[in-house]
Automatic annotation (TrEMBL):
This is 2Fe-2S ferredoxin. GO terms for molecular function: 2 iron, 2 sulfur cluster binding; electron transfer activity; metal ion binding. It comes from Moraxella caprae. Keywords: 2Fe-2S, Electron transport, Iron, Iron-sulfur, Metal-binding, Transport. InterPro entries: 2Fe-2S_ferredoxin-like_sf, 2Fe-2S_ferredoxin-type, Adrenodoxin-like, Adrenodoxin_Fe-S_BS, Beta-grasp_dom_sf, Fdx_isc.
Amino acid sequence: MVTITVLPHHEICPEGATVELNAGENLLEGLHEHGINIEHACDCSKACTTCHVVVREGFDSLEEMDDIEADLLDRAWGLEPNSRLSCQCVVADENLTVYIPKHTLNHAKEGHH
């Protein structure tokens, strides 16, 4: 089991959280199973950035991102060097500390059509 520490987020996880996931689990799906409902407007099809997270600890344990993810992240709000799309992260054998940015670029949620 790997410990995932989610830092406090004003809407999604106000108190922060600690969850246990198995190595090989998808980060976004695992967090959802524990009630941490990170947005994912494209249903994990790698077409948006709404599931953007910043991996504060354990970043190097994740598989390297591909070019599509890297290109998408260029459009994410609050991009940092350790940013990832949580739908593309497979938990390895190292604990992670994850920060969920305050805002996402989700035009559907913002009322744009």
